[in-house]
Each structure stands twice: as C-alpha cells, then as structure tokens.
Design goal:
57 residues; alpha+beta; Glutaredoxin; two-stranded antiparallel ribbon; 2 helices; 33% helix
C-alpha cells in the first residue's frame, strides 16, 4: 500500500536487527509487527483505512 501510493518509508527487520528491535520496544513497549511510526505517532498492526487517513491519501 505504501509503495502503491508513493510513500517513502524505511523497513527494519526487528527479527534480525537488534538495535531496531530495541528501539521498537523502547517506543512501543511491545514486540508487535508491523509497527509504523507516522510523524511521531506509533501505529501497531495493519489497518489500511487508518493508515491512509493518517498519511492523507
């Protein structure tokens, strides 16, 4: 969905990247994926309608 709408993002693999995993846990206090950070707001899980609303698409 992000690619289809031309939204740039950085994908981090928290299963293999310890620093990314620790950052996610520090920010969200959980290990759920996907975890998406939009303008400082954490979105956990995939809810296309909510993501489109927050991204303005």
């Amino acid at each position: 969905m992000l690619d289809e709408n031309g939204i740039k993002y950085q994908e981090l693999n928290v299963a293999t990247d310890k620093a990314a995993r620790e950052e996610m846990i520090n920010k969200t206090h959980q290990m759920s994926v996907p975890t998406i950070l939009i303008d400082g707001e954490v979105v956990v899980g995939y809810n296309e309608k909510m993501l489109k609303e927050k991204l303005g698409i």
